[in-house]
Every structure is written in C-alpha cells, then in structure tokens.
Amino acid sequence: MKPIWGRGAEAICRLPIQFSTSNFNELRLAMDSRTVRKARQMVETDRAFGMDFVPVRERSSVAQEVVQVQIAVAAQPPDPQRVIARTDLSREQKAASLAELARQTEEWVRAHWPRDGWNRFVFGEGDPAAQLMFVGEGPGAEEDAQGRPFVGAAGKLLDRQIIAMGLAREAVYIANIAKTRPPGNRVPTPQEAERWMPWLERQIEIICPRVIIALGATASKYLLNDPKLAITRQRGQWCSFRGIDLMCTFHPAFLLRSYTVENRRRVWEDLCKVLQRLGLEPPKREPSAP
Ligand code: URA
To answer: How many A from CA of 53 to the centre of ligand 1?
Structure first.
C-alpha cells in the first residue's frame, strides 16, 4: 500500500471505506461489540470531515486486513430494524402523541415505580418537532419540585449553552433517562436505566430529532448501550442512536464542578459540531463560552 504522508515508520496509508473481504463474517464474529462500536465512531467522525478513507499507520502492529474488516463493519449502516424511521407527522400530531405517551408513562410510574422519595414525575419538555434533543441523567431536587427537566443550577447553565448556540430553550427538546428523581440524587442503577429506556426510546421515536446530545456519562452510556463508556474519551465524537446522530458531551453539573476554560472549550467545540451538523452557523464568540 502506498503511503500518502508521513515518513519512515510513521508513514500513513489511506484505507478506503468499503465493504469487501472474503473472511468478513469470521473476523466480524471475532470482534467484540466495543471494537465494532469504536470502529463505527471512527468512520463516522472521518465521514463528518468529508473523508472517504481511514488513515492507518503503515507499520501498525494490527494486521491491515483486520483493520480493513473493522472499517467494513463500521461502514455498514445500522441495523435497519432498529433505525428510527422519519415520519411526516405534523408538530400538532407529535405533540398529541407525546402527551399520550406522557400520560401512559406516568400511569406506569405510579403503578410500578417504588415511592423512594421522589415527588413529581418529570417527562420532558420542549418543541415536539425539535431538530435537537438533549438527554440528561435524571431529575434533581429542583426538577423534582417543579416537574420539569433541567430547571436547577445545571439547567441554568444548559439554558446559557442553548442561547450561546443561537437557539431558544423552547425550540429544542429536553428529557432525561430517569423520569423520577433517584433517592438522594444518586445515579440511576443499570437496572433502573433498563426499565426507563423503552419510555425514552418511544419519546425519541416521536420527536425524531436530527441530533441528540447526551449530557454526561449516564445518558451516554445508556443511549450507546456501553456500560464501560468513559465520557472523557467519548465526548466530541459522532455516534448514532438508532440511526439518529448522537453527540456526547460533559454534563452541565460536571462543568459547574470543574468550571475550567479547558472544559468549557471542549463542550463548546462539541456544541459547534452539532450546529454544523444541523446546518447552522455557530455564533462568533469566545472558544470557551459559556
Ligand atoms: N440533571 C439531569 O441530568 N437532569 C435534570 O433534569 C437536572 C439535572
């Protein structure tokens, strides 16, 4: 393979993103799902930058054929059975479907969810036909008191981020993995998240946004079905939730605890990537804002 740039041991080759190899199925079975997911993310990021090839070190210890197979797996479209189909429902129809889903979810919660200290059911809010949806972890004290998502300190920062993007809170949709406050503000357990996910999935299916932003590790883990996900490594990379573009970024509550220029810059970069994907021009402002 002919190197395209670099020198000597660092020479880099272009591996075309294509689907072709004889022992594909055998090798695919040998790859764990995490590797497949990583490879898919790598390819999606490259594609977002308009690249139709993946750069690979010429003398990589990884056999080039295996890399080729990883690329082939990653380049495949997601399972068509799971892809969320775009519908031509009007905003009013989506609003009605969401209202009915909220009613059913609350009914289920009141019948099946333990009364472990929460007060209000927090379904989510925003434009039912939003192009952009934010998903957080679960209600905190303020959300539990008001029955609305992201209205406490983290919510105030999220509002500022949305405004910095040139958008309005009413123009996006905001929801959480958990619809009731976990006791003592703890992170939802994997068992709890598993029970919440079908309701959130239905919510996403109705809204069918162009892009989802997963706020923090919990939302990212469950939307990507990757319990070991590390948000520091995952953030900033395009991935997909059932065919919908997904960007993971730091949770506003984490940002409030670690309000460094560097962390703000990282989140802002993630948000600008989302704006670009939505075909919107990022407003001119400081790279670390807000
Ligand atoms: N944190 C979340 O993840 N969700 C909220 O609604 C509020 C704080």
So the answer is: 39
Ligand 1 center–CA 121 separation, angstroms: 13
Q: Which atom of ligand 1 is nearest to the CA of 136?
A: 3
Q: What is the pLDDT of residues 58-71, one digit of tens each?
A: 555 445 555 655 56
Residues recorded for the chain:
290
* CB neighbour list of residue 62: distance below 8 Å, 6 or more residues apart: none
CA distance 245 to 84: 11
What residues line ligand 1, using a CB cutoff of 6 Å?
A: 136-140, 143, 149-150, 152, 154-155, 176, 253
144 close to 170: Cβ distance less than 8 angstroms: no
pTM metric for this prediction = 0.76
In the CATH scheme, what is the code of domain 91-277?
Answer: 3.40.470.10
CB 245 within 8 A of CB 83: no
**How many Å apart are CA 120 and CA 101, to the nearest integer?**
16
Q: Tell me: the pLDDT tens digits for 189-208?
A: 999 999 999 999 999 999 99
218 alpha carbon to ligand 1 midpoint, in Å? 11
Rounded to an integer, what distance in angstroms lies between the CA atom of residue 261 and that of residue 116?
Answer: 38
d(CA 215, CA 192): 18
The domain segmentation of the chain, as residue ranges, is 12-78, 91-277
80 cis-preceded (ω within 30 degrees of 0): no
